[in-house]
């Protein structure tokens, strides 16, 4: 049966496309709206591109797109393996030639779990993401922004109605943008996953890709239905770690691993930065973190890359209640495991930046209570690792009014390594220098500068990151950074120590994870006296990191920004 909403969308798109191509029809403005049963549909460039790929049921089809581009997978094989990670105190680890060996299983820190799915297949062509550019909407067109070491991010082209990339940059500046060094015919736009790809013939080679899924992960019923209200519980017992799911008030074993050296697939020493009040880390980072290969229990059947309940399942006796954990900023991340997150690609490096694992995001999460916003990130390496004389910054980019025309705009013009498709009005941040935690602080990007921000009364509006333009002239509106301390507010700048007392930070024992607690009122008020951030407010938010690579012997910087979490509701607590 054809889905009515999809059918209507298809008919509407087709009507507008035909109208545009038929000269006898009245001219149609793509920015016009059509209303149907109190719903508003906008004919965007994206919908027009997707309309080229309609299946036999009249639905937009990603499979048809993949087939046309020679990317449809054949002879596909999928392997899914569970992994557990845990940090050991240095005193419980033996260092031997070739690596570390786990010792006592008591006192384990920061137990974690993830699933790695590796897919191999054949296809006519192979495609890889293009990280030197991104796509974003502007007046219902799809614009391509390019990254440049000289010009930062600039609009350099667009995606036309057929889905093809069209360069619009001419002259000597072309050579400054790595994306423009790729032949145009090798650049394709995937309108279903909304990303740019570089395509080339596979020449018959097997294509292998991997993706990690962190907690919480989904379990499906035997008919493919998603089972709701799943809370996961990690338990350390009998020199092993077991992952349980709470289903229907019963405890179901999902996966387990033995804590012995034969199961170790990776180990790494903890990162030990110098910390001040406002940032903490369990055991001061004096740990070794091991990743163990586990196995799924007999209760779980793996179908492709999904976990399904087996026909015969064994529940642990007793009655269990799934409960949400209250976030505590202490460097123990068990309370984050059941908070849904957003994954970010591993290895999404812009070509002119250093491939720094400490600035390669893997996952972000956001939650709140009635006073605080809580934010979480995971990186491949370690947060705040700078090396001697290096710098490291962590950001939250918050669009408090869901308006790209206020704050720092998505078509970022200066001092930006990775763009985000929202207007960045407010930020909470922290800074490391020389492997030392220097401070946490706020940022505001709106009308005015230091005087306005320090007054505590803010006005949203278009602004910039830098206080001066590329011509060297002082701007009227630019990003201001400030700290709240002792009942007063102070402007702060790079290299200036002194943390904001209403932002609290904690690192995991190995530094790969960080949690940040930010007082909602610390973001201040608008001109009407209303808090910019409050319970009941919807925001768009992304998280980012950037830092120098002195630790790796490079003077270049690395950077990464997460996907945007749109329409996050700062929700009321359940009583």
Detail the topology: elements first, then pairings.
Elements: H1 4-21, E1 33-36, E2 39-42, H2 45-50, H3 62-68, E3 74-89, E4 93-96, E5 99-102, E6 109-122, E7 125-129, E8 133-138, E9 141-148, E10 152-159, E11 165-167, E12 187-190, E13 195-201, E14 207-214, E15 219-220, E16 231-237, E17 240-247, E18 250-258, E19 264-269, E20 279-280, E21 287-293, E22 295-296, E23 300-303, E24 306-309, E25 315-316, E26 341-343, E27 361-368, E28 372-379, E29 391-399, E30 426-433, E31 436-444, H4 450-455, E32 457-458, E33 480-485, E34 488-491, E35 503-507, E36 513-519, E37 525-526, E38 538-548, E39 557-561, E40 565-569
Structure explained in plain terms:
The chain has 575 residues and is mainly β. The chain contains 4 helices and 40 strands. 6% of the residues lie in helices and 42% in strands. The strands form 10 sheets. Strands 29, 30, 31, 33, 34, 38, 39 and 40 form an 8-stranded antiparallel sheet that branches. It is globular. The two termini are 43 Å apart. The model is unreliable at 1-42 (pLDDT under 50).
Main features:
4 domains; 575 residues; mainly beta; 40 strands; 4 helices; eight-stranded antiparallel beta sheet
């Amino acid at each position: 049966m054809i889905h009515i909403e999809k059918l209507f969308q298809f008919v509407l798109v087709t009507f507008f496309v035909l109208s545009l191509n038929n000269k006898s029809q009245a001219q149609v403005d793509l920015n016009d709206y059509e209303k149907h049963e109190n719903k508003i549909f906008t004919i965007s460039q994206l919908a027009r591109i997707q309309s080229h790929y309609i299946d036999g049921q009249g639905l937009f089809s990603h499979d048809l797109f993949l087939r046309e581009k020679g990317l449809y997978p054949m002879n596909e094989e999928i392997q899914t393996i569970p992994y557990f990670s845990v940090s050991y105190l240095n005193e419980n680890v033996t260092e031997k030639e070739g690596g570390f060996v786990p010792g006592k299983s008591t006192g384990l820190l920061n137990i974690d779990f993830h699933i790695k799915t590796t897919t191999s297949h054949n296809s006519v062509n192979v495609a890889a993401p293009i990280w030197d550019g991104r796509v974003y909407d502007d007046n219902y067109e799809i614009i391509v922004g390019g990254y440049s070491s000289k010009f930062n991010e600039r609009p350099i082209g667009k995606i036309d109605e057929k889905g093809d990339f069209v360069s619009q940059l001419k002259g000597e500046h072309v050579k400054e943008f790595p994306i423009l060094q790729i032949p145009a015919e090798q650049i394709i736009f995937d309108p279903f996953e909304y990303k740019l790809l570089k395509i080339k013939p596979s020449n018959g080679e097997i294509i292998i890709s991997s993706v990690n899924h962190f907690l919480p992960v989904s379990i499906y019923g035997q008919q493919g239905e998603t089972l709701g209200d799943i809370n996961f519980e990690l338990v350390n017992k009998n020199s092993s770690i077991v992952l349980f799911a709470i289903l229907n008030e019963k405890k179901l074993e999902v996966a387990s691993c033995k804590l012995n050296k034969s199961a170790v697939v990776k180990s790494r020493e903890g990162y030990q930065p110098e910390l001040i009040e406002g940032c903490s880390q369990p055991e001061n980072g004096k740990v070794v973190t091991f990743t163990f290969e586990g196995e799924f229990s007999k209760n779980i059947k793996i179908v492709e890359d999904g976990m399904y309940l087996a026909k015969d399942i064994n529940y642990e006796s007793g009655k269990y209640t799934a409960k949400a954990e209250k976030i505590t900023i202490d460097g123990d991340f068990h309370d984050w495991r059941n908070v849904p997150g957003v994954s970010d690609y591993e290895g999404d490096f812009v070509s002119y930046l250093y491939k720094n694992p400490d600035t390669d995001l893997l996952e972000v999460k956001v939650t709140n209570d009635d006073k605080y916003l809580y934010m979480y990130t995971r990186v491949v390496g370690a947060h705040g690792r700078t090396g001697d004389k290096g710098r490291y910054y962590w950001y939250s980019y918050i669009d408090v009014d869901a308006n790209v025309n206020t704050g720092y705009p998505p078509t970022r013009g200066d001092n930006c390594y990775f763009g985000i498709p929202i207007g960045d009005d407010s930020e909470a941040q922290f800074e490391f220098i020389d492997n030392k935690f220097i401070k946490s602080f706020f940022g505001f990007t709106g009308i005015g500068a230091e005087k306005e921000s320090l007054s505590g009364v803010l006005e949203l509006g278009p602004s910039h990151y830098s206080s001066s333009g590329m011509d060297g002239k002082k701007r009227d509106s630019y990003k201001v950074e400030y700290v709240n301390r002792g009942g007063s507010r102070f402007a702060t700048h790079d290299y200036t120590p002194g943390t904001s007392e209403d932002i609290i930070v904690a690192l995991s024992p190995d530094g790969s994870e960080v949690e940040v607690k930010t007082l909602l009122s610390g973001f201040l008020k608008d001109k009407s006296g209303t808090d910019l951030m409050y319970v009941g407010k919807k925001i768009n938010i992304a998280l980012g990191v950037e830092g120098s690579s002195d630790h790796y012997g490079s003077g270049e910087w690395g950077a990464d920004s997460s996907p945007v979490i749109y329409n996050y509701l700062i929700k009321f607590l359940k009583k």
